[in-house]
User: Fold this.
Amino acid sequence: MQGLLLVDKPSGWTSFDVVNYIRKIVATVEEKKPKNVKVGHTGTLDPLATGLLVILIGKEYTRRAGELSKQDKTYEVTMHLGVTSTTGDGEGEKTTVSDTVPTEAAITKALQQFQGPIMQVPPAYSAIKVNGQRAYKLAREGKAVEIEARPVTIYSNELTSYEYPLVKFTSRVSSGTYIRTLVEDLGKSLGSGAYMSDLKRTSIASFMLNDAIAPQTATAADLAQHLTSVDS
Assistant:
């Protein structure tokens, strides 16, 4: 069994939880121990985030994880104004920053300002390695985390709804873009502060969330039916 499997990751599951669950199904089908089955993914989603996760099954695909990860992505984002979070999302400690209520015009302008090629500093609570250790591990230990800014491209930010303190928008971005950082930068630009309260990934390159299966109810038959291949 090998190929790509599109999965709709539920909130509360880590990306590894999904990989582990699918690996057990594949192992049962192939009558192997799970540790002897190759399963991976092409881009982590935070535990609270939902949406499209591309699972790689089989050695021919897992060895291409790096190549297949460098794809443009689309997200549906909810930004909570007036409050910041130590992690940039709903998991961190919250601090009220401002009760200023930005106008819809100001929000639209800010979204437009953060489009195109930009330099972005990834969040301290991320899986990026700093001196050989994961940044989030250092941050949780209370150690200073210094991560250099890196170039990313934000192709579009489109406002979908605004009812203070919640702003909802759709963002199409290049690989390596952190939406948590985008939201924090937007909050600073608006002078209100903000954190990402919800995130759903709806596409990765040409792969769409509408074609994904729910991992928590997936069966061997589902995998066999929905596995796809990509050209070498």
In short: The chain has two domains: 3-70+205-226, 73-203. The mean pLDDT is 89.
